[in-house]
């Protein structure tokens, strides 16, 4: 148990408009799928220290909508994402478009054009690999999203977050 | 030049297997055009073209020796490009570490019989 492989996220740029994020997990893919589609589970890991996720609505079917919103505990800043599912094949493939809801948060993320996201879940020997391909529609939008990912408010207090993970895993 | 323009040039310059191989060679130390051309089935002018792209992007420079004109790596733009993507990668990694913890809890709370059936 203690010697099992530690997986890390890989990020590649397959084209000028896309980003691909790949990560494996020591879990059956049904659990990884549920963690991405069941609101009560999503809220347990998509929130961050100092940021709660009070809104997480998921209507997981083709044409169904979703809406996520994060709020800062400190100053009430809020932002989110929303969109429509375009492909649902449980527990293998989930595709959706995604619009950024800036709330009252100042960010360089694009507003007008949706990002097209396709996640594929494959399982082998109890290890699930999740590949998320995001097409931002333009190079500018993609680069802005990547730059935002490294600087925006969700990166706050990671020291505390790391400590939290350590205590969770030590249980 | 803006940081974003520099990043564009860096990634465009590296979006070619020959240029990546040249960078890999130069990572071992400086080399002349002839030395760089040797492992490739390419003429020196063709290699020079690739070197020009890398040099324009600021990824390599030409050394002092007037005869040999050795090329060498300039670390700045590469580090910037790596740092840019690495920040984004870390953002996902932190999220996924939280997911690891959740998956562990989900797995632990599943009934044993159900776990067994799922593996079949």
Query: How large is the share of residues in beta strands of chain B?
Result: 5-15%
List how many beta strands of chain B DSSP finds: 2
Percentage of helical residues of chain B? Answer: 55-70%
The structure class of chain B reads mainly alpha
Protein chains sharing the most extensive interface: A-B, 39 and 29 residues
Across the major sheet of chain A, the strand order is 1-2-8-7-6-5-4-3
Strand content of chain A: 35-45%
Inertia-based shape of chain B: elongated
Question: How would you classify the quaternary structure?
Answer: heterodimer
Any overview of this molecule?
The complex is a heterodimer of chains A (171) and B (120). By secondary structure, chain A is of the alpha+beta class. Chain A has helices at 29-37, 39-45, 139-151, 158-170; strands spanning 10-12, 18-25, 51-58, 65-72, 78-89, 93-101, 115-124, 127-135. Chain A has an 8-stranded antiparallel sheet. Chain A is built from 4 helices and 8 strands, in the order ββααββββββαα. The longest helix of chain A is centred in the C-terminal third of the chain and has 13 residues, at 139-151. Chain B has 120 residues and is mainly alpha-helical. Chain B has a domain at 3-74: Arc Repressor Mutant, subunit A, CATH 1.10.10. Helices cover 69% and strands 5% of the residues of chain B. In chain B, strands 1-2 form a two-stranded antiparallel ribbon. The radius of gyration of chain B is 23 Å and the shape is elongated. The termini of chain B are far apart. The mean pLDDT of chain B is 85.
């Amino acid at each position: 148990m203690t010697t099992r492989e530690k997986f890390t996220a890989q990020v590649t740029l397959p084209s000028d408009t896309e980003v691909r994020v790949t990560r494996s997990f020591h879990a059956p893919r049904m659990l990884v799928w549920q963690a991405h589609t069941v609101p009560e589970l999503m809220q347990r890991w998509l929130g961050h220290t100092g940021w709660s996720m009070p809104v997480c609505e998921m209507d997981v079917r083709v044409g169904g909508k979703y809406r996520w919103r994060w709020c800062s505990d400190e100053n009430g800043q809020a932002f989110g994402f929303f969109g429509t599912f375009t492909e649902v094949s449980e527990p293998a493939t989930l595709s959706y478009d995604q619009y950024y809801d800036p709330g009252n948060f100042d960010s360089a993320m694009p507003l007008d054009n949706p990002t097209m996201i396709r996640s594929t879940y494959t399982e082998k020997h109890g290890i699930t690999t999740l590949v998320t391909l995001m097409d931002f529609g333009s190079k500018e939008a993609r680069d802005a999203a990547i730059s935002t990912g490294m600087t925006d408010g969700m990166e706050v207090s990671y020291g505390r977050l790391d400590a939290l993970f350590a205590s969770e895993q030590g249980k | 030049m803006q940081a974003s323009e520099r990043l564009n040039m860096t990634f465009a310059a590296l979006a070619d297997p020959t240029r990546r191989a040249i960078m890999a060679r130069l990572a071992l130390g400086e080399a002349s055009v002839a030395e760089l051309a040797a492992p490739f089935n390419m003429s020196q002018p063709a290699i020079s073209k690739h070197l020009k792209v890398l040099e324009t992007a600021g990824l390599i420079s030409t050394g002092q020796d007037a005869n040999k004109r050795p090329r060498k790596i300039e670390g700045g733009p590469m580090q910037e490009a790596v740092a840019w993507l690495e920040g984004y990668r870390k953002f996902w990694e932190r999220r996924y570490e939280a997911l690891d913890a959740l998956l562990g809890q989900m797995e632990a709370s599943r009934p044993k019989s159900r776990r067994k059936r799922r593996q079949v």
